């Protein structure tokens, strides 16, 4: 079962091997909403991403979406229900790799928009110091994070969502639960590959 | 010249020595907007605060107000122009001590409301890990932070301001400046007691 | 049951009310090893500390002692067995208030030396950004941290111990346990007032 | 001029394309001291690293070496003098990419050993939350960090060095300077690509 959002190559894959100069005029908007050509800049073909996954760690951002109250306290934690590649349903967080020439902030905004839609109104943090760095390995047991496809280094952020969520693409639903709810434990146990541990750390960091 | 907002005792000082049980029904609203009796719970008389200042470090929160763009980047940094106790004008940040039985979040919200008004719409962070801890001493030169009145331990936070600022009380004006503006250096040099260094660290932490 | 190390006034209490100028020649050594007069500078009499505890939050440092391996990973977490004021045995961390005119680093080093002895060789962090800030209130249930004596704001640090521990004063023993040991859960459940939650957050922050 | 340590392919490059199972028995020692085959596991051929550099961001660790005093304060900051690929001398920090199947801690230890030798005795942090994340782009001006070869995402750590430094390989010398020395500014101005800004942020984070 895949444990992170995957690159889903399509006919419009376009950028592998192109000159770096092509990025000179790329704007955040191009990454976050695409360039009208189907994939954001920096997207790779199935062949290229597969080869690289066997050669080096892949940088990811991983976002724990939360609802906060007036004083900034976490009132609810969000998780996604998604259709996995094998057709099963999985519970996960918002996660995706950082693309070539994309900033971390663009990657965070793009992945949130991809999963929660364009009117989620995420409140990105003023600083990019992650609350934790999760190291996923393709070898089970090497760390508490496991991803059969790759070695991924995920910078993890808590991002308050101020707007409305309209699940997109493979995302079927977004479910919210209070940090002190019994349901939280159930949700965390449904997250594969260590993503539940990331939520626990997010709540520890948030003081809850 | 005072370098931190001071407790300004008035006739309605009321809480020194009272039983702790009195706090059982205190709400965040009581701290942030007062209880209709002039001062928030936990306020001390001039005599009590003065005595304590000579005996132990006083916990403070210090807020660097910022305006952020859609991606969370700091677009502008705010500073306050205030009337100091000696009648002079000083440039400072938003700062105040944490009151007895007040949470850090309440102290942050209360001090922002006190200086920027009720519709500033501050976006408090999901986690309370400060970007730095500033240690103010009454002895010049002991650290880079100096406060002639006291030994203060200030937990420092960057807080985006999403609403409108209506300066209150001793605050005359809020001035905003871009992080890369030449004016920033002028502003920082006008901040006494090391508050300018706090802004520099805030921007370093924010990646700018 | 007391949940934090307490000030234990003795006949040599000396500093309440003295002029601030007396601190001009105080050295870190004076705080950490005392001045030969029984208590470090900044110590308060029973009457003064009691009065202040009813008036304002008291700044504390709280240290999670750890043993680390060559790569800096936490191999063991330490906890203290102490004689409480009522004669019972309690399990706790290293904690103490920051004294007047004492730096955070001095407070950390002093409290470690007080509990673990002079040859513990603590490795203080290069930066003083705490992994969490624990807010203890005298009202049960207001936060997950409870201290019947006071409102305390504790800056929490993980500090590797490289030397030998010789428990001092009220400290009977230091016990070490691996983060993945079943015994850890037992130990954490024996810590009152929320100190167990601080260990959990320390381990979450440390990636374990 | 190259601004980060580079992969220097040699005849013993061996791992591109091999099965992941080969990593099952790799130890930290293999990464840090090599396997006797010239390069650590995860090393790539010149062709593979070059192709990947044009396709995705490369994860790096970047270390600011420091000397600390008994209280953990930064007494000196280190920088390296190195022979660049074009034969010129450059001043830089300790930096290197994270290899496939290598943990962040192994990458930090390996790169320190490579530059400072086997008896530098680095004190790795108990937690891996970086003080900043530096985003290097091959397009000048996109961020304050620039690397003509690649888009690199560098997790930045301050690491105290407790032992003796024996510069290795391309590293000619390690020079130490006090944070308040005038020489620091000169050194920082000699660091290309934004590495000087990383030192500034490290010192801001360390409270100096």
UniProtKB/TrEMBL annotation, chains A, B, C, D:
It comes from the Bacteria. SUPFAM superfamilies: Nudix. Keywords: Hydrolase. One of its GO terms (molecular function) is hydrolase activity. InterPro entries: DUF4916, NUDIX_hydrolase-like_dom_sf. Pfam families: DUF4916. This is NUDIX hydrolase family protein.
């Amino acid at each position: 079962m895949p444990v992170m959002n995957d690159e889903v190559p399509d006919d419009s894959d376009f950028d592998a091997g192109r000159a770096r100069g092509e990025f000179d005029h790329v704007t955040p908007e191009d990454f976050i909403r695409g360039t009208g050509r189907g994939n954001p800049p920096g997207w790779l073909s199935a062949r290229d991403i597969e080869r690289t996954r066997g050669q080096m760690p892949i940088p990811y951002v991983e976002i724990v979406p939360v609802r906060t109250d007036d004083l900034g306290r976490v009132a609810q934690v969000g998780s996604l229900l998604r259709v996995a590649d094998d057709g099963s349903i999985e519970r996960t967080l918002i996660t995706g790799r950082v693309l070539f020439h994309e900033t971390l902030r663009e990657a965070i905004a793009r992945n949130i928009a991809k999963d929660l839609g364009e009117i989620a109104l995420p409140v990105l943090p003023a600083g990019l110091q992650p609350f934790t760095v999760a190291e996923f390995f393709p070898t089970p047991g090497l760390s508490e994070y496991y991803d059969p496809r790759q070695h991924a280094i995920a910078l993890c952020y808590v991002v308050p969502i101020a707007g409305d969520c309209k699940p997109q693409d493979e995302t079927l639903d977004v479910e919210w639960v209070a940090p002190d709810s019994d349901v939280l434990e159930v949700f965390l146990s449904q997250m594969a590959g260590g993503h539940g541990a990331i939520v626990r750390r997010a709540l520890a960091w948030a003081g809850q």
